[in-house]
Amino acid sequence: MVSARKWSVVNQKGGVGKTTTAVNLSTAFAAMGEKVLLIDLDPQGNATTSFGLMSSEREKTIYNAMIDAENTLSGYIIDTYIPGLSLLPGSIDLSGVDIELYDKENKLYILDAKLKTIEEQYDFIIMDCPPSLGFITVNAMCASNGILVPLQCEFFALEGLSQLLHTVEKIQGNLNPNLEVEGIILTMFDQRNRLSAQVSEDVRSYLGTMVYNTIVPRNVRLSEAPSYGKPALIYDLNCNGSQAYLRLAKEIKARIAAEIIA
After folding, report:
1. Residue 8 phi/psi, 5° resolution?
2. Separation between Cα atoms, residue 202 and residue 89, nearest integer Å
3. What is the C-alpha separation between 109 and 66, in angstroms, rounded?
4. 3-class SS at 134?
5. How far is it, in rounded angstroms, from Cα 26 to Cα 178?
6. Helix, strand or coil, per DSSP, at residue 262
7. Distances (CA, A) of 222 to 133, 146, 198, 209
8. What is the rounded CA–CA span in Å between residue 240 and residue 216?
9. What is the enclosing helix (H) or strand (E) of 191?
10. Distance (Å, whole) CA 196 – CA 153
11. What is the model's pTM?
């Protein structure tokens, strides 16, 4: 059986659509018949609450799984109400996990070792990372074979992206030579704003085909959905944001198919 594609959704800047992307892309893949595991690595736990679950009320979370040296991840994973989509809930306790694991051997590979015990059960494992390039995000990238980068169409987008790509190069050179940039996802695009179009053009000029063709628009329904405990694709399938994530999932799968043929 082929192991899952393990992707971290990463950007050190907050508010760029990481969780929205992780939740709705996972949902779109599941809707297409893929078996997906979504891991909420952000101490804020927003991916968890996007499915109507309160991370503060759960005793078994990714935090407990990382701290527990004996058990595999399987005992911490729950099924969501979306067929084919499982969740490993987040926890506010993740904010201090780097201190608790400070003296642990191979501490940057904890998540990698845990994922190896379950990765053959899934087609995709998608990790929603916190808005930083700290311990948790590095752990995720050491466990991943690719990263997805949501990039908000705003003025300082390229500056932050340059820093992130530099970090990826360091991880490739020192920690995980198999890590690749799977793709850049342009988010929060406002067609009424000339700056959005300019940023899109600049990013494509700089990174070429690394940038997905699909653009996720700024959309009220995408913002509303988490407060109802639902991914946008469940909350309002027909809104522009949901349709964009469905197109993105299809584009990603088409790229994968093309790579396999090549």
Report:
1. -100, 135
2. 36
3. 10
4. coil
5. 22
6. coil
7. 25, 25, 23, 26
8. 8
9. none
10. 5
11. 0.94
CA distance 215 to 213: 6
Find the largest Cα–Cα distance for the chain: 54
**183 closest CA partner among 156, 215, 227:** 215
Pair 195, 212: CB distance under 8 Å: no
Q: Which residue has the tokens 């969740």?
A: 87
Q: Which two tokens stand for residue 113?
A: 């070792």
| Top mean-pLDDT range of 69-78, 82-91, 149-158 | 82-91
Render pLDDT for 103-152 as a digit per residue (tens, 0 to 9): 888 999 999 999 999 999 999 999 999 998 899 999 999 999 999 999 98
**Among the listed residues 35, 62, 12, 44, the one whose alpha carbon sits nearest the alpha carbon of residue 226:** 44
Tens-place pLDDT, residues 32-64:
999 999 999 999 999 999 999 876 656 789 999
Q: Is 54 helix (H, G, I), strand (E, B) or coil?
A: coil
